[in-house]
Amino acid sequence: MYEITEHKRDAHKYVTITGFEGNTSNLVVPGEIDGIAVEAIGNHAFSGREDLLTVQLPRTIKTLFGFAFHDCRKLKKISLYDSIDDYYDGVCRQCDSLKEIEIVMERGWYEVVRNFLADNDRTLRFVLKICQKGSDDGIKVSDIGAGAMGNGLATAVLTFPEYVYDFNENTMARTIQFSIAGSGMFYRECVDRRSIDYRQYDKLFEKAVIDGGEISENIAVDRLLYPIELADNYRKMYEDFVRSSADSILSRLVAASEEEPLNLDTVKALLTYNQSCAGEKLLPSSSIDAAIKLSAQKKLLKMSAILMDGTSDSGSDMVSFEF
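The structure assignment produced for this chain is given below.
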């Protein structure tokens, strides 16, 4: 569903999407309708939908009006371009399952990243496809794989942890005391309109480690596999962390590989990672062996093949498993 609007500034006509009749799990918004560019997603256009899992927006979109995807509880991923000039309040608020936002950065306009981060206090993973000079303007989101490098694109993958903003009333002092728990707010300060401060992002890793768990592991793995502006000292820091956490990282990637097929590529990349400090593997042999056993127990043939292939240069004891 849509409406055609005349722009107040220059009187050109454009389409505003106001909703969608019927059910759809993977929403792909067209770039034009009847020859008129689709430039906006309207107020509450998809608010409260229970069917949406992914959303893909075209490069023509310039405005996301208020609460466009508000309360889409099952929405996991949004793909779009940095063409957004106006981002209104609540676009993805209460999207409790939203984990990943993929943005093709054609203009270097990081304000769209800031807007998503300001709108959602949960952990968000950004896959940024950064167009280099001389890149092909015709690249589409659907053409870009998770590990793509080329076509004038470089990939940055950055996880921004969650945070909790709370306040307590001090009745004796008649004041309200505010507090922020979690490293997410600090990480969000690394993004401004035109850039991301990668050095500051990496410097904050010690705070993410304090938060602990899966988030810190994802940050370390993604920075090593997509090392845009990664300084040598931080590279070594991430390598040491991944090596010490290899059991947890591999077991999690293996266990979730059926639901997350891209985990196969991640494991392969970790196994073939070119260590900055020669002589020591990123993944210890004992961790690979444990992952092979887990993969065999779950009858994950592709994952087992990748892991077994990774043992050929690791010095690991080869073990045979029956499926």
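Interim note for the steering committee: Residues 135-150, 314-323 have pLDDT under 50 and may be disordered. Residues 135 and 151 are 6 Å apart (CA to CA).
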